[in-house]
Amino acid sequence: MIDDLPPLREVIAKHDLAAKKSLGQNFLFDLNLTSRIARTSGSLEGMTVIEVGPGPGGLTRALLAEGAARVVAVERDDRCLAALAEIAARYPGQLDVVAGDALETDWTALLRPGEQARIVANLPYNIGTELLTRWVETEPWPPFFESLTLMFQREVAERIVAGPDKPKDYGRLGVLCNWRCETKIAFDVSPSAFTPPPKVTSSIVRLVPRTAPLPCRTRDLSAVTAAAFGQRRKMLRQSLKALGVDTAKLIAAAGLEETARAETVPVEGFVALANALAELRAR
Q: Is pTM, for the whole model, over 0.85?
């Protein structure tokens, strides 16, 4: 045990916390595993951590036991609040529970002036990609978080870290994440670790913001990746027509070949396309 609180199975039975599929919930009971996830984010001594979807609090307990000075846990499911209150009582002044929807949360408002956080979460599968995209698109940059340590389905994790060397997985998500962050898959988590067990393997992904990513506007990068990967089997000269500019000029300005396909263009190439698009539209 990592603390003197009851085992998670007892907590779930006491509060009748059967996981809800509609909320994308899959609970982790193994506190050794939640501790490993917490440690993957680095030393937590003195750190503020934001957690999304704590559920009965297995990862929450691990974060606090690993030394986090403060954990801000955002939970949509009111059924879990009583269990989280018991953790807050065990760690007085260190756990702030925010009852609300993560997709409607103002993250910077959760932090004190000048405070930076790490985000560590077993994200609900049904909102994980959207949350990640919002965090990576945060303005201004560098962002309010020092790192992201997040759980996703394995196939999503592979898309996050993919580059042109893995063309089947490489897409808009990989371009966005690797433009602004260094990414890596830390380890996999078997379906048997969860209750109820999902049908897929999960992975812990760590993203560390780049201090100075290649300059371009997020909206322009989003536009060129949407067009290019929207027709990924076609050459750029065809797929980029959706942007409504002279594709030959656009591709030439970016220093790319018209016959290239999206899956072969590195992040740097998409940044060049984004900047070229901004320039053409400004004329």
A: yes
Q: How far apart are CA 152 and CA 266, in angstroms?
A: 24
Place of tokens 């076609």: 234
Neighbouring CB atoms inside 10 A of 13's CB total: 12
The encoded tokens of residue 209 equal 């913001």
Query: Who's near 198: CB < 8 A, 6+ residues apart?
Result: 26, 125, 153, 191
Residue 110 has pLDDT above 80, yes or no: yes
Q: Are 73 and 84 in contact (CB under 8 A)?
A: yes
For residue 178, give both structure tokens. 């690797």
User: Taking 70 as the threshold, does the pLDDT of residue 24 lie above it?
Assistant: no
Spatial separation of the C-alpha atoms in residues 103 and 23, rounded to whole Å: 13
Q: Three-class SS of residue 138? A: coil
Domains, the chain: 8-209 (3.40.50.150), 218-282 (1.10.8.100)
pLDDT tier at 273, thresholds 50, 70, 90:
very high
Give the H or E element holding residue 247: helix 247-253
Output the pLDDT for position 125: 83
- Residue 157, pLDDT score: 98
The answer to whether the beta carbons of residues 71 and 94 sit under 8 Å apart is yes
Cα angle at 74 between 157 and 209, to 5 degrees?
A: 45
Tokens 């993250």 locate to 107
Average pLDDT over residues 47-63: 96
118: left (phi over 0), alpha (psi -120 to 50) or beta: beta
Count CA atoms closer than 13 A to 75's CA, side-chain side: 22
Q: Nearest to residue 201, comparing CAs of 217, 187, 221, 183?
A: 187
**With 0-12 CB in 10 A as exposed, 13-18 as middle and 19+ as buried, what is 40?**
middle
Tell me the helix, strand and coil percentages in the chain, rounded to 5.
45, 20, 35
